[in-house]
Amino acid sequence: MSQIIVTNERIINASPSEVYAVLSDYNQRQQFLPENFHNYTVEKGGHGAGTVVQYRLHAAQRERDYRLGVEEVIKGRVIRERDFGSSFVITWTLSPENGGSRTRVGVASEWTGGSGVGGFFERTFAPMGLRNIYDNVLDLLNARLTGEEKPALKTRLSKDLYIPLLAAGVIIGFLISRRRTK
């Protein structure tokens, strides 16, 4: 088993305090969640530390329920959302840019991956799917804060698909060579 870490980052044309106010208001979080998030509910609190939320995340062909507790690691700068039922953790980090008129918003998702063949595929493909989901979250957060239209989805073919395509090619080549030797 190994740690899987997926990171995303975006610069948003709003101050860190504006971004933090929206990001830490879990009662309004649905306004910038894409369609991958289902049955989002605030179970406890609703603003900042001590909040408990739950939702069902649909990614690729899988769905999973999450129930997360919120921690304010550094008030105004770092929010951590920790799943009660697994090792899954999401950390939001805000850094001022351009003298504080803009904010670099980072989101890192981390969990302990499976082992064996299933773990290999999880380490290979899950980061791509989750990165795309959080690209959408960051686009929607930007639109919520600035009123700017949601940017077009980014294509990352050359960077993000290189390793998975290479891995798929190696596996297919291995399977073909095994078939020929039988």
From TrEMBL:
Which residue ranges traverse the bilayer?
161-177
Q: Name one Pfam family in it.
A: Polyketide_cyc2
Keywords of this entry: Membrane, Transmembrane, Transmembrane helix
Q: Does the keyword Nucleus apply?
A: no
- Protein's name according to its UniProt entry: Polyketide cyclase
Species assigned in the record: Ktedonospora formicarum
